[in-house]
Design goal:
By secondary structure, this protein is of the alpha/beta class. Helix content is 27%, strand content 26%. Strands 1, 2, 3, 5, 7, 9 and 14 form a 7-stranded mixed sheet that branches. Strand 2, helix 3 and strand 3 form a beta-alpha-beta unit.
Length: 228
């Protein structure tokens, strides 16, 4: 189990935008130049928000067809997922893959209710290739990066949680021990996820990356297994 960053370190990371985080990782882990970040665009529903740093929790959803399980089984999966979101360490970040391709985003899992529920469980935001809705009614200060905006739930339901997902070309694993290219053991599911201003494309350059290395040190960066 790696030494996880404390709240002070997490807050320090929020001072840097995503390209600067990538610059720093390229210095200490050159092999990361082609992995660990989103490769396709997502919609930043609230681009004015500051960057968010949190611990990833993963899930799979679909909405094109009705839920194949009975009501009790579906409820058990959803309650288990909520426990997954609320588990330490916090804050958490929901990373959800919609597996209904080619109809990805057919029905929205995220809206007014889910953003308020997740925020109450200690979740700071969501990254999903699925759809969202109810933007005006979403919980305040809850970061949302999504594949699309759609009006309906359709048959949206959780398929599984806690495993490996792929969102916008970025692979994220929850609760499994993996190794970085440097051989440093890290729990990808407890990885630091830094994102924000994704659609703006601004960056603080190499100077910001050097500052970040000096402020946080190499140990924290080695344990950062996914950056977006």
């Amino acid at each position: 189990m790696p030494n996880l960053p404390d709240a002070k370190s997490l807050e320090a990371l929020r001072a840097y935008d995503t390209p600067t985080i990538c610059n720093a990782l390229e210095i200490v882990a050159p092999a990361r130049r082609t992995i660990g970040f989103t490769r396709r665009p997502l919609i930043a529903c609230f681009p004015e928000m500051k960057p968010v740093v949190a611990f990833a929790r993963t899930a799979l959803i679909r909405s094109r067809e009705a839920h194949p399980r009975d009501r009790d089984s579906a409820n058990r999966i959803r309650l288990g997922y909520y426990e997954h979101i609320a588990a330490e360490p916090l804050p958490s970040l929901s990373v959800i893959q919609d597996i209904d391709a080619p109809d990805t985003g057919f029905g929205a899992f995220w809206g007014e209710v889910q953003t308020h529920v997740h925020k109450g469980l200690g979740c700071a935001g969501v990254v999903t290739d699925g759809s969202v809705r109810d933007l005006e009614a979403m919980a305040p200060d809850f970061l949302v990066l999504a594949g699309s905006v759609m009006p309906s739930h359709a048959h949206v339901h959780l398929v599984d949680y806690g495993g490996t997902v792929s969102v916008a070309g970025m692979t994220v694993t929850s609760g499994r021990t993996t190794s970085t290219a440097l051989g440093t053991s890290t729990l990808a599911g407890l990885a630091i996820h830094h994102f924000g201003q994704l659609m703006r494309g601004g960056h603080q350059g190499l100077g910001g990356a050097i500052d970040l290395l000096q402020v946080l040190g190499l140990q924290l960066l080695f344990q950062t297994s996914t950056c977006f």
